[in-house]
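Ops channel
N.P.: pipeline sanity check, posting one input/output pair.
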């Protein structure tokens, strides 16, 4: 993990939300709208790290992030939750540039890879090989390890 990424994983919960709803407000407001629709349609939010997420039953599509909110495939595990949490951290630091630097390229890349796979063509790179996807996975995984360690420390002090 690079030094800049290490610094990004030092973000604490209050700053995550402050940055999410100020500097990263565009995606975060979209996330609130998505949350509202999901709750109205009977889905219940779950917490992962500092993010809230909803599970949708479709298989093998991964997830989609909007600031501190993400949707994920019911069948995906911890890896995708860490990855989407990492995109939430990226949103705090990239702010309004997140849409152009990460979200749109990620969506285009996802659909390109999905179509290529459905056509039976091999993929030449791993999903995390492009910088923003690899960084999201590293950030989310590292921050979740830190959060779990903090919880263990808190329990020991009681």
């Amino acid at each position: 993990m690079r030094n800049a990424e290490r610094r990004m994983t030092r973000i604490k919960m209050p700053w995550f939300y402050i940055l999410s709803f100020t500097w990263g407000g565009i995606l975060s407001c979209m996330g609130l709208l998505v949350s509202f629709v999901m709750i109205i349609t009977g889905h219940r939010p779950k917490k992962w790290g500092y993010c809230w997420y909803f599970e949708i039953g479709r298989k093998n599509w991964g997830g989609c992030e909007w600031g501190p909110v993400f949707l994920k495939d019911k069948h995906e595990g911890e890896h995708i939750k860490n990855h989407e949490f990492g995109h939430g951290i990226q949103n705090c630091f990239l702010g309004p540039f997140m849409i152009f630097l990460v979200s749109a390229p990620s969506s285009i890349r996802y659909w390109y890879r999905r179509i290529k796979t459905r056509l039976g063509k091999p993929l030449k790179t791993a999903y995390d090989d492009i910088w923003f996807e690899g960084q999201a996975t590293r950030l989310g995984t590292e921050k979740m390890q830190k959060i779990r360690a903090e919880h263990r420390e808190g329990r020991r002090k009681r």
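N.P.: looks fine end to end. The helical segments are 3-8, 13-21, 25-40, 78-94, 98-118, 131-157.
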